[in-house]
Each structure stands twice: as C-alpha cells, then as structure tokens.
C-alpha cells in the first residue's frame, strides 16, 4: 500500500512540475495552492492572536490574585511597622512568589520605594509603574518594561485598621512565561493544510495530464495565436509553399506559390496531374515524393529553385512539403539591394566625415574626399568668393573660387584649386547656380554650353576621358553658396537616380559649409572688435623696452588684453588680463575693463587699490546685467597690474587670480615671482596684496595669459616649465626675439584660447638726470630753490626752460609751504620731458579755478597749466606729490645723446 502511495505521489509531483502556469490545469492548481496557503496562514494568525490575548488576560488575573492575597495576609501591617520591614518581608515575598508561580512580589511604601524584590539590589529603589490609582484605593494593572523584562503587574493598596493606605503590594509575571496553546495547535493546523494541498495537487495533476495530451501542453490563447501566426507567415513570405499528399493531391498552396505557378483558385484538393498549366518536369517532381534541393525548373517564364522534403514526423499525415523561390527576381533584388547599401554607407560616411571643423575650405574638401572614388572619379567644389570671407554671396555664378579638388588621379586638366572662375550663363554650373536645381550632363561631348566656357581646356578634359557631369548647387537656409561638380571618366555615365544621391550628398555638406561661413563672419566681427579695443601702438616712454604678441583663438575670440600706460614721474604701468568666456560678450567686457584700468591709472592708484576698484566694477556689471537670457554671461576675469619706476628701479605689482609673471635676470636665469595670489575679479569681499621688488637694469619682466601655457596636450606646470626653458640662457636677447622664441616653443597648432604675451626690459634713469632737495618750511627758501634749479638746468643744457620752470617751481613750493605740512621735498627728472615734483606731508590737493579780477590769489595753478604740458597730483603713504611736465624743445638731439 505504501509503495502505491509513493508512486502516486511521485507521478503527481512530476505532473505538477511539468505543468505550465499558462495552461488551464496549471492555473487551477495555482488557485488551489493559493487558497490552501491563505487558509493556513489565516488560521495560524488567528491562533497566535488568540493565544496572545489569553496569555495577557491570564497574566493579569494571576497578578491581581497574588497581589491581593499578599496584601491581606496576616502580619503584613505589623511587619511594615517594624524597624526593618525589608528584613521581615523579603523572605515572605520570595516564598510567596515561588508558591504562587509569579515572577515577583514587591512591597513598597506610599512613595514607591521598594521593601522587597526578587533582585536584592533593586530594594530601596523606586518602583517601575504607576502607584497613583493604588494610593487612591484601587487595584491597578499595567504592562511595563521592568527589571525582569516585559511584565504584566497588578498593584493593590495595603490598609491599616482605620482604612488608610500605608503601603502597596505589586505582583506580576512575564507574559512569555504564561502557558500558550500555540505550540500544541500549530502542528495540527499545518498538517491539515499540507494534506489539503497534497490532495488538491494530485487531483489537478490527473486532470492536467489528460489536458496536455489533448492540447500538446498549449494554452488556449497560445493555440489561437499559433494558428493566426501560421496563416500570416504562410501567406506573407516571399517564398512559395506547397503541401502534396502521398496520392498526389494538392493539400495547401500559399499566395506566393499561386503567383509563381499561376495556379487556379480551386487548385487545392485537386490532383497535381490535373493542373495542366504546370511544366511536366515540375509535375513529375511533385508526385514523386523524393527529396530535392534547389533544383531549377522553368515555370511560367520564371526560373524556380525548388526544395522538396517528405513529412516523416510522428503523427504527420504523410506527403511532401515543397518550397519555391524565384531565382530571377532574387538576383535582381540582390543587385539592387547592394547598390542601395553602398549608397546608404556613402551617406552615412558623409554625415560623419563632413563638417568636422568650422572651416569653409576644409568642409568643402571633406565633401570632395568622401565622394571619390565611391560616387565620382573627380569632384570639384566652387564657392562664391564672398562665402570664404563670411559674407552673403552674389546671385550669379561670377567670381566663384575653386576651393577643393579631389580625384582618382592628379594629372587631370580640370581648373586647379584656388582659381577664381566666371562661368558663362550657358554652362551647367551657371544654370544650376541661377535656378537652384541640379544639372545632369550624361555626355559632355554634346554639351555645347559647357564646351564654349574654355574651348581649349574642355577639349583636353574630353581627351582625358571625363565624359559625364552632375553640377549640384550648394544651398542652405535659402542662400546659394556655390556648386559641387561630380565628374566621371572610368565608369558608366550618371543617371537620374544618381542625381538624387548627389543632391542628398551636397545637402548634407551645405549646412556644414553655411555654418562655417556664419562662424567665419562672426569670428571676423569679434576679432575686429577685439583688435579695435586693444592697443594699436605702444606709447612712447623711456622706462621699459616693450614688445608684445597677441593671437586670437582659432575657435572664437576671448577676452584677453594687455596695456602699457605711462604714469607721472617717468613711471610705467603694465597690465595683463583675461575675461572668462568667448565671443562678442567677452570681447566687449574686455574693452570695458581695459578702459576702467586706464581711468583708474589716471588717478595714480597703487596696484592693490586699483584691483579693488576693478573688482567692485566687475561685481556691479554682474549685478546690473544679470537676467535669465544672459545667465551664462556672468563676468569672470583675472588681472595683473604692475608699476615700474626707472628712477628707483622699484616694481610694485598685484594680481587678481592671474598667473604669476616671470623675471629674466641679466645673467639669463629665470624665476617666477612670488606675487600674493588674490581672488579673481568679481568675487568681492577679499583684499589684494602687493609685492615690491628692485629690478636690475636689463631685467626682462614677462607677463602672459593662460592661453600661452595651458593646452589640451599639457597641464599648467608643464607649460610653465616650457616657458622657463624658452626664456632661460639668453641674456642678450631683445624683447622682440624673446617673444618670438616663446611662441615658437609654446604656441599650440590651433589655439583654443587667446594668447597675450608682454615682455618688458627694464631701463634705469641715470642718477645725473635726477636732482632732489629737502626744502624747509620757510617762504624765504623759495628763492634759494629757484637758484638751485636754475643751476641744475644749466648743467643739463636746458637753461632755456629755466624761466618757466622757476615760475612753476615757485608756485608749487609756495603752495606746499603755505597749505601743506612737513616734510617738503623737491625732485627734478630729466627724461623725455622735464618733470618737476613737489611732495609734502599733507593730503589736501589744490584745484584749478578762475580768479576774479579783484582776487589777490588763485592764479598760480592756472599759470602752471599754461606753462606745463601736463600737471597733476598723486597721493602717497606720506602725503601727496604735485607734479608738472615741461616739454624739452630739442627731443631728437636728446635721444641722439
């Protein structure tokens, strides 16, 4: 009996495993399993919940009974009133706890302080739980997390003879210690569920086995879908299918077989021999039942490749299956598919290979390269000459320039690259340019309009073997840019189908050429604007021998700038800066910042103060011009500003986020100066620091922007090392030669950023050309100073300027004595001009004004402004300096000395 049950269980299990969840039997089994499992789970949950409820009720009942029994036990009141209640009650509570089967009995006073506890260390500590209700005379139960864990406890009052509550008794036990019924009932429920599951599985397995035999294990929807797909595929394939029975009857013929064999509509069910339209050899093959592989039979004017196989499978009705293919049409379709494939590959390669740069000539050359030799033997591209400059082309095919020529050979007689051509109106190029439509010339020898363009050259073209032409206009966004000419010499002439391919090929290139044209125009405008905002020539000065290089980026102008600004006292300011970004916005911002540097320099501010004002200006530009449309045009800029004094050979500089300058010593060694790094302009809130150093005469100060040393192929440190190597070891090299050497060493092939390079060799003003005096603050000292200055001018050979200089000096010293403060210092500098400086310790500055006829004073500065070429005031840490410059009459003779 057990063996039968085991075999039944094994068969049922195998049937269940083999059952598909998409079959009807599988779905019934799945529903039954889900129901049985759900019932078992619900029973277990109900049992657990009921057990927990009964356990909680039982725990409360036992806790109340034990607590009340102990609270009313004889002698409890006397023990509480004894000197040591814990000593009396601890043994009693422990004995009662063990007898009653609870986990604890605690006796406490009315304040909740324990007298007893199963853990002696807890005696004397406060009871865990509420005692308020029990102090009011009530029995109170609760669940708490006490010293023993999760507990159910009951607290009852202990009354004296007069009914007053003098103590409390609490008894309780842990809930898990209450006997539960779950452990006894759970196996019964699980066993019942398992039995129900086994019975349902066995019944379903028997039903499923019978259904699988009848449906081949397919679900109803699968069977329906199978037959629908069978009919769709059978009648949609481009291959004829026939099923012929053993006795020669045609059981099935799909639509393609009917077309290839030209079968009548009632052919199915008839014997193959009765179909008179079939070729006898084909009929013989169909009724023979033999195997055949790609046998070629002639039927209905077609060559058919026939395959025949017998149906020998188990359960098959017998007969043969025949497939038919039209080899004639397949060969034609295969050849056409190959042509289409080649054309699609050409267009795909054109999409990848044309327009890789924003250069008009390069894009035109890419069009010529991609079409040779896959589409044409020679390709020439002619663009309107204005297109090369980014301008709008003319509407006629005159002044077009041949910008690209590509062919299978280089000795062709076609017009060479770079030639400016005027096509006659009768040529295919001129007609296509005027109409905007492509021109197909299958035979150039008969194209009279093309032959008259250049008879000698066209004859040589024909003799060379070029015989066919497609002239396709290059047109984008409604603008006709030029013509692309496709020539053939080694293959069949162009036809109408290839004309559409040429138009598609040119259309893909036209957009790229127009983009390059527009970019050329915008780049030229930006470069023009940028160059107009930069110095055209360097100002004349004697402090520095300066040379510079400025190269705009190939991919778009940026905002780099440089400046050389003469300052009073023969000093010169150098500045180099860089505006973040590219395009017109960066160039315009550069112009604004350069103008601001000029304006701040006219105030003769020290470098750190000038950068602070420039930083504030950039912050205001960002704040005033910020809007959603220009959110990406927030200004960010760097700047380095230096002032060199040839009298003291001192150079003071500060930088705002810019790269440190390099210094080439007279011995040829190179060092990068330690100038404190300030934040880039526009951040605000942070001060700038200056660095002051003394430069030896003949030193070269090298200022540059990051476009010179940073590149995609090298990092910043590598670029600075290359700059050091390019500058080092050539102490006698001029700034012009140094600029060229640096560019030869560091200039990228196609700069992605602007490059500004400024190299200044320092000069020192000879000591014999500078005279200075300390002047006491006494009006009587003025006459002595006039005499000393007159003698100095006599030594310098400038006695003719003595009268004017004495007037200027007298007025400046008198103002310093009258309105200034000590110390008063006078300095004369003999440079390109004669410079007089009067310094004092006051910060008050005089102002030029018109004096009335009745005024006794106020004409001194007016007199100075008439005698001097320039005059002004600059402030120092010790006070101010008022200066005036007088022109030297014979400057050429002075320079010759």
Automatic annotation (TrEMBL):
Residues 542-762 form the PPM-type phosphatase domain. Residues 382-523 form the GAF domain. It is a multi-pass membrane protein. Keywords: ATP-binding, Cell membrane, Hydrolase, Kinase, Membrane, Nucleotide-binding, Phosphoprotein, Transferase, Transmembrane, Transmembrane helix, Two-component regulatory system. It is found in: Cell membrane. Residues 228-295 form the PAS domain. The chain crosses the membrane at residues 28-49. InterPro entries: Bact_Sigma-Reg, GAF, GAF-like_dom_sf, HATPase_C_sf, HATPase_dom, PAS, PAS-like_dom_sf, PAS_4. GO terms for molecular function: ATP binding; kinase activity; phosphatase activity. This is GAF domain-containing protein. GO terms for cellular component: plasma membrane. It holds the Pfam family HATPase_c_2. Its main location: membrane. The lineage of its organism: Bacteria, Bacillati, Actinomycetota, Actinomycetes, Kitasatosporales. GO terms for biological process: phosphorelay signal transduction system.
